[in-house]
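Objective 1b. Sequence-to-structure analysis of Acyltransferase.
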Amino acid sequence: MPKNRNTFSSLGVLGRRLAGRAAHAGWRWMQRAGAVTAETPGGLRFGAIGDGTRLAFPQGTVFGEPWIRLGACCIIAEQVTLTAGMLPDLDLGPEPLLVLGDGVVLGRGSHVIADAPITIGNDVFCGPGVYITSTNHSYDDPHEPVGRQWPRSAPVEIGPGCWLGTGAVILPGARLGRNVVVAAGSVVRGEVPDHAVVAGAPARIVRRWEPESGWQPPLRTPAPRPVPEGVTSEQLRALAALEADGESSPAGV
C-alpha cells in the first residue's frame, strides 16, 4: 500500500506540473494573440495607431477610440485604461481628445481619462499606476453627494521627455514642460516649468535645471557613465559580471 500511495502521489504531482505548464503556455499565447497593434487592432478602432505601438493583453477599459490617437513605438502595458469622453458611444466632435506622441510608455495599471483634451508628448515614460485625468469631481453644493455633482474639466498637457513615477496623479489643468520628473506618489496641478523635479501632494518643485547654474540644489549622485559607441550587449554583460566579481572579492580586485 505505501508504494501505491507514493505512485498516486507522484502521478498527482506530475499532473499538476503538466497542467501548470499548459496553463502558462496558454496564457503566453493569449498575451501574444490578444495584443493590439496597428496590424492587429482587434475590436478597437483608434483614430490613429502608429507603427510599432503595442497594447499588451489584457487591456484595461478602453472607449472613445475614434478620438484617441497613439503615436509610433508606444508601449501600453497590461490593464491600462484609455478613455475619451465621459461615456462610451458619444459623438465627441471632429477633434481628438487624447493624443499620445511617439515612444510613450504607460506602465501597468495606469489610467488616462480624457473628458477634456489630454496631450502627452514624445518619449514620456510613466511607471505603474499613474493616473492622468482632465476631469475632477466638484463639491460646490454641501447638500448634494459629491459623486452626483457635475464635474469640472480642464485640458492637460505633458511635455516631451517627462518621467512620471509610480502612482503619480496628474490633475485637470496641469501643464508639464519638457523633461519634468514627477516623483512617485505625487499629485500635480498647475504649471510645471521645463527641467524641473516635483514631489509631494500637492507637488512642489524640489530641484530645477538652469543653463547658467545647472541643477539646483546640486545632484547628490554622479552622472551615469555613457555607453561608448560600438559596444555590444554581450560586452556589457561581460563587464557587469566582472564588476560583480570584483565587489564580491574581499580584496576588491
